[in-house]
Amino acid sequence: MKHTYVLLLIGMVVIGAFLAGCTQQASTAPAQNLKIGVVASLTGPSSTTGKDVWQSAQLAAEEINAKGGVYVKDLGKSVPIVLVQGDDESTREGGQKAVSRMITQDNVDMLVGGFSSAVVSAHQSIVAEHNVPYIITGASTPVITRRTDVNTSYMFHHAPTTDDSGSQTTLFIDNVIRPAINAKFGYPQDRPLKLAILYQDSPYGKGHLDAVKNTIANNSLKINLVSQETFKMGESDFRTALTSIKSSDPDVVYVAAFLNEQIPIETQAMRDVDLKKIFIAIEPNDDPDFYKGVGKYGDYSVIQSRFSPYTVPKGPTEAAYNKFVTDFDKKFGGFPGMMGVATYEGVYIGAKAVENAGTLNKTAVKTAIANLQMPQIVEAMQGQTISFSKDFRESKFDLTMEQLVWDPSVNETRPKIVSPANLKERDFMLPDWYVPGKA
Amino acid sequence: MIEKNRVVLYLTVATLAFAVLFPLVTGLNMYYLTVLILIVIFIIFASAWNFLTYSGQGSLGHAAFFGIGGYISTLIAVKSGLTPYLTIFIGGAGAALVGLFIGAICVRMKEWFLAMVTFGFAVIIQVLVASQFVSVTGGWDGVAAPPLISNTVPNYLVYEYYSILLIAVVVILLFRTILNSKIGLAFSAIRENELEARASGIDPVRYKLFAFMVSAYFSGLAGALEISYLGYVTPEIFGVDISFWPIIYSISGGLGTLAGPIIGTIVITLLWDGLQSLGLTYGRFIIIGIILVLVVIFLPRGLVSLPEVIKKRAPVWKARFNKLLSK
Amino acid sequence: MEIGLDIFLQVMVWGLYAGCIYILLATGLNLIFGVMKVVNFAHGQLLMIGAYVTFSFFVLTGFNPYVLLAASIPILIVIGVCIERLCFRPILGTGKLNEIFISIGLIYILENVAAMIWTDEWKTIRSPFEEITVTIGGMKIPVDYLIIIVTTVLILVGLYIFLKKTRLGLAVRATSQNRKAAMLVGINVERMDMLSFGIGAGLAGAAGTLWVVSGQVFNPYMGSVPAVKAFAIVIIGGLGSIPGAIIGGLILGIAENFTVLTIGGAWKDAVAFLILILVLIIKPNGLFGEKAE
What we know:
The complex is a heterotrimer. In chain A, 41% of the residues lie in helices and 18% in strands. Chain A has helices spanning 2-23, 47-66, 92-105, 117-130, 162-184, 203-218, 239-247, 259-271, 288-294, 318-332, 338-357, 362-370; strands at residues 34-40, 70-72, 77-79, 81-87, 110-113, 134-136, 155-157, 193-200, 223-231, 252-256, 278-281, 302-305, 374-375, 385-386, 400-407, 412-419. In chain A, a hairpin with a 4-residue loop joins strand 2 (70-72) and strand 3. Chain A is elongated. Chain B has a domain at 25-239. In chain B, helix 2 (30-54) packs antiparallel against helix 10 and helix 2 (30-54) crosses helix 11 (240-253). Chains in contact: A-B, A-C, B-C. The A-C interface holds A 45, 47-48, 201, 229-232, 234-237, 239-241, 243-244, 247, 259-260, 263-264, 267-268, 271-274, 289, 293, 295 and C 1, 4, 7, 10-11, 14-15, 17-18, 119-122, 124, 126, 130, 140, 142, 145, 215-219, 221-222, 225, 257-258, 260-261, 264-266, 268-269.
């Protein structure tokens, strides 16, 4: 009896030590490489995105290493990038474990990634405490670099926030869609546009709702919010919410949803509820699966984009875009999502900052990121430069608006850029079947 | 019997010694401390869940209490500036109050009804926190939580760990005292047969409510500890996975034993992290699922009963083995 | 907000449609409960498997997805029987919470096996009839919803005939009413267990097909929410009562959609439990429940 318990205990200790040992990498040799920890949700509900994030980071690291690595002046030589995988399991606890492991066991020089806002906010305090530069390329809420209870000065937000994305979309509605409707249907120029918003009940959806409202108020836009409907994350039946929106008689429906919600929303609106309006999808939805899923129901709908699978903004980013997409497809198969491309850029940003700093010292690297002025890579940035704002350390993206056009040759719709003016491929058009809200 | 008690004592002392000495041996290692702190917090949570089963009740929605504890403790600490060392207990009290309310509704329900109603309360409370009381709770943006000990204090994580460990030890000793008292006897009477218990003068309603309240209190305390450790609380804390983990830990360790949730939490957490370091993603969930099914079928009293079962079966296996050899 | 008659009727239709899925799930759960007195919390994962089976056959064969009911129902019956034999039979008559624990294990197993086979990306297919709409009372309704409602009614009628008019159905009902007495008159109750579990799983498979046909998206984790609601319906209607399940399903389907219309989508999932709690406070055994114990 006694022996079995003692044995059990010893067994447990041995197993524990073994497991702990498994995760401990031999990393005593100091600074012969640039270690970047990649925070990605490789398991759990966000794992599809997580895989994109991890693979894109790998691609960037390999490219940089193939060119000889990152030159560090202090060491007088170039060092390769070594990536460390940190699976946050899409949970707060998992993120906490992964990040603390990367910081203390793997001694990473910086962190890149971070998807869900809830998960990121739960591990921010340890990052802050250890002063590890963290380039956040996933979470969309502006709150993460605006918290005041922890020191966020080491955290940089390289993803459009809900504020940026929401305000750019709202301005597009006011600048482009509103005049188009008023012109086509002979309404007076100052007729306010009737906007309905359907948003996910989450930080992401709520952030968009607030951004839309604030943009309208701050710019005194002629847009009336006629309906606000919400839905639970992961919902698949939107028919009643859409019926309610229909009864509010809007001109345009702004949808803040994920891909798996955006597809049924547009399908059910057109097919079941007969809500024939212009639908607007926001930036994370521009993915091959969206075009496949929404089919012909997406025709004439608008999608915001920073990285589209089917259209490349003409200009300086075109070559980098094509190279990245082709290389990714060759290596992993498929299309890297926008979280993927941002992480790919995140690794380049990190490498550049280390080169600028000339050292792996974290404070110096952080200062280098804060002062970074780097040409845009794949995604179009404002001023064609990647730099982080002084106040909340956010990089500013140049988001494009695309309209979907039916392409019989692929039996799906394809996007055409309709805004901004310097990149546009054609004008925004109202379909023949379109009926605006009553004046 | 005496022999067994002594073994349990040894085992307890050994585990505790391990828990106390480990950080001293490994030095200040944040990763190990993170894993240990989360294990200890979930030991409190799983033990609190398990405590409820002593009274013949169960819950599929303990995330409600875990989350309420976290929110109330955080909000009070933020608004009043009190140290989280105090507010975690207030958080627990808030959870207990809600527990009393839910318990009062559930007290006459059994099994599946109870399971569903508790599950439902977790869903309802999440909606209330995320969408209804936004001005207080911060809605989906959540609230930043003050840490137990400021991180300007050197080695603060070690102190935090020992504080949480101390709380866990006290909680489990308290559970032990309660269960060894008259109340524990009343619980088992109710669990075995409520009508008979009533006949012998035990008021099941009172005891069941008490169990619900105590369980909710310590679940809330665990939630408050986790949140002040993680530093941020969002409505995701009311998720189904938070309700399921204490159940998984308790069942695999052994329902209705004090050691069960402790052993279950340690073994499953280490297994979970170990499987992850092997690169299993979906496989990890499948293995946990299979373990759960196997434990319920073949080891209904959990891993704690494993030595006994082995001891009982060993002669049989030996005989079979010998027979095989002699063939 | 003012609700016009047209909106009211439209939302009723969405409620009816949602109710159909719930009814199929809840009826299956109730049949299993009646015979075995156990609850399979992993029932929604069977719906999910049904959806994927339909999807796979649709992609492979291109058949009309409604015809694929003939694939999803039998396959799910087989899976159901396996689950009954491997997981639920060993724990029959042990602690009452054990089936909940087993179900949690099953949920993890089924979801992640599905994720390994089909990946966890969201999938969707299109019904061949998606263009066709029928106008009833000034309302344009896609014909798919009418087919779904009619199919559900047919399945329920079939089940009714089976239970009331066949010898096997009689045996199932007898076992459901009194297991010991059924055993005494020579009914093989273990076979009845398998049968009821199989039929229950088959109904979940049918629900999965109907889910897919209506163009709803699905992924491996989509089953939990409908299952939990189906179980809430079972309790609202009363454990063991199939008419209760049908009425409960309709009530929930309609109530949910009116909640979205009036209070807002954030409350959609919570309303099932609010109704559940209210019903249980007023009628502790559900609307049509047998007296417990």
